[in-house]
Amino acid sequence: MKRNLYQPINGGIVDIIEESPTIKSFVVVPEETFRFETGQFVELTLPGIGEAPFTPSSSPSDTTKMEITIMKAGQMTALLHDCEKGQKIGIRGPYGKGYPVGDFIGKDVYIIGGGVGLAPIRSLFLTLVERINDFKSVVCRFGAKTPDDFIYKNTLFDSWQKIDGVDIKLTVDGASGDWDGNIGVVTTILSAGDVDISNAVVVVCGPPIMMKFATMKLLEFGFGPEQIYLSMEKNMSCGVGKCGHCMIGKYYVCKDGPVFTYEQIIGYPNIWD
Amino acid sequence: MQAVLISELKPFLDALTQEMELYVPRMSGTHYVYNRYDASAKVPIEFNNIRVCTPVKEFLFPLRELAAVYPESFEPNNIKPFAVFGLKECDLRSIEILDRVFKEAEFEDPFYVARREKMFIISSDCTRPADSCFCNVLGGKPFAQNGFDLNVSQVKEHFVIEVGSQKGKDFIEKHSGLFTKTTEAILAERDKIRIETQKQLEHNNADLEFDSPVNEIVENSQDSAVYDEEAKTCVECQACTRVCPTCHCFYLYDTRQKDYFAKMKMWDSCMRIAYAEVAGGANPRKALGDRLRHRFMHKFSYFLERYGLDMCVGCGRCVDAEAGEVDIRKVLKKLNEELKGKDKTKAEAAK
Predict the structure, then answer these.
(1) pTM for this entry
(2) Residues with Cβ within 8 Å of residue A162, at least 6 apart in sequence
(3) What is the ipTM of this complex?
């Protein structure tokens, strides 16, 4: 029999990692095998409290557990931040369409991320580096408010930068102390020569304002709207294209997204709000 | 299609209650609402000549329902067979629309599907459309053509009962003693009444003529200022979406019961300000006009593109329920005028 689509799979939080002053990663173990594609999202339930959508930040190749990185942004996320190891949770999904990794083969993959937007990007990044030779290059340009606000610091500042075929540049809005990297918003470290525009795709994930300005910059460089993949995180509630909350124009972000090319959504009002 | 006659409704309704719960229309104030039928009660049976005020979605997708329980899993059960008497063609079309959403193969809503399977539909002809009814403009009729189990038409002292499904046929055959044969003359009289009502509707809506298909009119209104203007009198009561038989937005919320946790599903409205808001406060439709635009776009363009039919049946319930002055017909008319103006300007520019 088909599972009732509103019924979560039971699971638990087995570990919690403090990523930054406002962001934590939760290692979640579902009681059933759980497969997802990178970029797809899940609905995470705190029993009796609420439910919210998150994109896993771990690689899909681990089917026994997943990591979900969450910024304290509202009521539900604040309550999640108060949780401790052993907390029972529910998971529905995975939902939506993820990154079309197959279409990235043979190309420069240009990844632009900001703040907690690095969460879905990490899942994509790990997926790409598992088969790094399939891509011409993986070029990352990431930003955060301060050096301390970067998530995944242990790997981001270290092992990821050493992977062959990967080029990472970081920037912060402001820093004090021993930060010797760039200072400025993420668009200040983008350059038209970062990748071969004629054979590249761009993935952008971050706060709406950052996605907007990054997209404008990319268009200036000469990228086509069909080359730019945006993660539109809206108010996905049911996850299955019925309840209506996440609609952007004709699209249900939960079902048709959450990853869209800019070309798909360019004509709709207020997409960056 | 097979049709039979009966001279009073009570034996027919009583027979239905032997097999299932039955809901019948009852006039309450100036509108019909649905009540559970009680065969032993001495209240007169009402034949509603117009749609019931409340939308049929209530029977299939209740205002609030339990959607999941955990840690134990929960599936729909104990849903008993039920019949609804007096549904109109607009109601049947709205069920067709809801079916597309909730019976979608990939993501079936098990609660909707369970209720839909147990529902016995008895439609009836409209004979006195309201001023707000405009179904004819959107391809509707004042009588049901399909989608019912049985359909009832009042013809003078008779009720013609038409069979629309196997379930309906089985019922008529099982209770054949209640019915007599119909005649060509009576069916001809029924058709005459239907044509008269259709004419009445056309007369009522004579000034609601469009120069382009409604979906084109609405698709071209992405930048229209009409929505902001029209939304000025909206008080966000959300009555339009509540009484709408096709609106199906809902939200899920979690609750803590005595000995279990539950996920509830409850109607929501795209006209509510926080409807699309996310944690952190971003909201793509903060302005009322943007929400009204989205509602129209969804009804006449997005839904059509996805499911192949309009998400408005022209029942006019939203017009009756409106607390401000937003009138779906008036908005469509204004958008039509605007598009006509644009087309004219284009044509002149082309010269």
Answers:
(1) 0.94
(2) none
(3) 0.91
